[in-house]
Amino acid sequence: MDQDLKCPKCGSEHVYPDGSLWVCPECAHEWSQQSEGSAGPSENPDASGEIRDANGNVLADGDSVTVIKDLKIKGTSSVVKSGTKVKNIRLVDATDGHDIACKIAGIGAMNLKSEFVRKA
C-alpha cells in the first residue's frame, strides 16, 4: 500500500483499498485509484469512459446493436432473443453494468449490458 496516499477530502492518512476504490474511514470519501495520477496504463479497459460491445467496438448514442445471447427479462417470462436488432441506443452511466438504454419492439423500454450486444 502506498504510504504517501492521503484522502483528498480530509487529508487523513488512514485510507484503505476496497476493490478498485480507495476509502477514507474518517470521512467516508471514496475515490478511484486512477485519480491519484498514476502514470501507468489503465488496468480497467473502460476507465476512459468508452463503452464497448462484446467484440470491443466503441459504441455511441444512436448506434444500432444486435443482441448476441438470449436474455431473460427479470420479473417476467419474456425473453429477448439472440439476433434481435435494437436501433437508436442511448448510452447511460450505470453502476450496475446496464449501460445501454433502448426500446425493443414488442417489449418496450429497457436497459442492456454492453457485453451482450455487438455493433450492427
TrEMBL record:
Residues 6-32 form the Protein YjdM N-terminal domain. InterPro entries: YjdM, YjdM_C, YjdM_N. It holds the Pfam family Zn_Ribbon_YjdM. Signal peptide: none annotated. Residues 51-120 form the Protein YjdM C-terminal domain. Residues 33-56 are annotated as: Disordered. PANTHER family: PROTEIN YJDM, PROTEIN YJDM-RELATED. Belongs to the YjdM family. This is PhnA protein.
